[in-house]
Amino acid sequence: MLFKVLIVFVNACAVFALPRLQYNTEPPFKFYSRSDWQALPSIGTTLLQTPVPYIVIHHTYIPSACDNHEKCSAAMQSMQNYHMRDLKVGFCIGSSGDVYEGRGWETKGIHAGPANSVSVGICLIGDWRVQQPPQEMLESAKALIQLGVTKGYIKPDYKLVGHNQVMATECPGKALSNIISNWEHFSESFNELSDNEVITLDFPFVRREEWHARPPKKTLPLLVPVPYVVIHHSYSPRACMDSYRCEEAMRSMQDFHMDTRGWWDIGYNFGVGGDGSAYEGRGWTTLGAHSLRFNNVSLGICLIGDWSNELPPPQQLKTAKALISAGVQLGYIKSNYKLVGHRQVRDTECPGDALFEEIKSWQNYSPFPAKVTDLLDVEEIPESIRKDWKDRGVLNASVPL
Ligand SMILES: [Zn+2]
Ligand SMILES: [Zn+2]
């Protein structure tokens, strides 16, 4: 509560702060630096090699459009707070044409998968699927790009694309897509693939909104940082190799968990697709429903597919590991966490024989607990709960688990 009050106070102060123009060439828009909108320091930044050959245009979808400093700062803060502790893009623009610094010109963003290392991402705050962005916003976007060229951060012969030309997504919305297709430098396609994509915090991360998740029926908080990470496979749906099918897989798991199983939401905290993207399930701080009796002390990550006889593709394994390191760096997973397969905490074949053999070689793999009855001796589970299980005999093999 105190925290909320403090945030409101900080926002109120920000209204009176004068925008600082950081550039020598004065741009034709109000520019708010990170400190102007009270950004948190960013974590794990990577230098972007400039000048970049691409500009990628986004909309936010959520948060919705904002037309003053207070609302736009709040939008920036909410986007920053969302998981990765930093903006995905270089800059965002509000409805009145004010520009807000995200990662800026020289830091690599996490906004468009394969285009991250060769582009600056610019987001127009709002949902521009049907509605057209205001003229001021569009003019500022163009002026910002021009400024980037003048300052040497963007190649003079740059190509401009919408997010949906790089990855399977609705972003930046149909209305905005139509508009930018008439802009100078618009390119029909993106084709500059970079092969040094994935580093620690750098993998495509697909939010719930982006895969069109249903809202949860109810949520409970997860006490973080968690001491355990549990690896699952989906078995069904089978492997997905592009974002269209992976998003569909996330939706089908969510439907199955909510409608057939009667759970509040998709059970897993995250899904990881064969396309190398991490998909937000319940997320970092919401209690999952993936490992009965173990949910309270763990995050559940599901590698979409049936990994009984074959291994997930390299990019899927890589992203699963990168997601775990991101969780550690962001403070959601204990640094001395233990990694286990679902079968170690419940009678199940999950995560499949092949994947289970694979994770035994991963960092922090723990052979204990080896089977569900070991849960009685897992010290991270409160003594009172374990005593209750012992008294009621719930972990006895004769009782269905
Ligand atoms: Zn986008
Ligand atoms: Zn499982």
UniProtKB/TrEMBL annotation:
Name of this protein: Peptidoglycan recognition protein
Ranges where the N-acetylmuramoyl-L-alanine amidase domain occurs: 40-173, 212-352
Any single Pfam family the record assigns to this protein: Amidase_2
Gene Ontology process terms (BP): innate immune response; peptidoglycan catabolic process
Cross-referenced SMART domains: Ami_2, PGRP
Entry-linked InterPro entries: Amidase/PGRP_sf, Amidase_domain, PGRP, PGRP_domain_met/bac
Signal peptide start and end residues: 1-17
Superkingdom assignment: Eukaryota
Keyword Signal: yes
Domain Peptidoglycan recognition protein family: 29-167, 203-346
Family: Belongs to the N-acetylmuramoyl-L-alanine amidase 2 family.
PANTHER family given in the database record: PEPTIDOGLYCAN RECOGNITION PROTEIN (PTHR11022), PEPTIDOGLYCAN-RECOGNITION PROTEIN LB (PTHR11022:SF77)
GO molecular function: N-acetylmuramoyl-L-alanine amidase activity; zinc ion binding
This protein's UniProt keywords: Immunity, Innate immunity, Signal
Subunit structure: Monomer.
